[in-house]
Amino acid sequence: MKHAIHETIEGTRKCIQDYKFTKKLIFNKHIQDQQDYNVFEISEIKRIRLDFIKLVPFSVFLLIPLFEALLPPYILLFPNAFPTQYIPKDVQLSRERLKQERQDTAHRKLLLQLKSALLAHGVSLADMKTPEGTRKALEAEVINRHLALKSLDS
């Protein structure tokens, strides 16, 4: 019980920190007349906005007495409805590892497809080891696609 209370307090503290971060970021960009955000800022703003949307039903479970008993079925029905600030570190780490593994697998598959496509167009792997060879390979691919599109138009 003590651990659950501590986790709830920590999650609420993290929510407040995220709110302050987003408010400060948006306010500073507005003052400086900048509308360009970098990739990190965009992803953090999206994550924090989504977490605050998730926080509304989650806070109902916390504020209404004895309503916490319905939290496990709710999480079973909607597994991603838990705000990230309230997810334990070990679960977050396992999710990050799984995400990284999936991303690595996708990168390997994409690399294999790229290599096979370039080999199909007559570009050797030795040519792709140098920047000049890679540039020539990509130029050849663009020319081949342009010619293929012209033949379709005719």
General description of the model:
It is a single chain. This protein folds into two domains: 1-87, no CATH class; 88-154. The N and C termini lie far apart (74 Å). The longest helix has 32 residues, at 89-120. It has helices spanning 2-31, 39-63, 71-77, 89-120, 131-153. The mean pLDDT is 81. The chain is elongated. The chain contains five helices and no strands. With 154 residues, it is mainly α.
Keyword list:
5 helices, mainly alpha, single chain, 154 residues
- What is the tally of beta strands? 0
Described by strand count, sense and barrel closure, the largest sheet is:
none
Radius of gyration: 25 Å
Shape: elongated
How much is the average pLDDT?
A: 81
How many domains is the backbone divided into? 2
Count the DSSP helices: 5
Sheet/helix structural class: mainly alpha
Instruction: Return the string of H and E elements.
Output: HHHHH
Low-confidence stretches: none
Question: Could you tell me the strand content as a percent range?
Answer: under 5%
Helix content: over 70%
Report how far the terminal alpha carbons are from each other. Answer: 74 Å
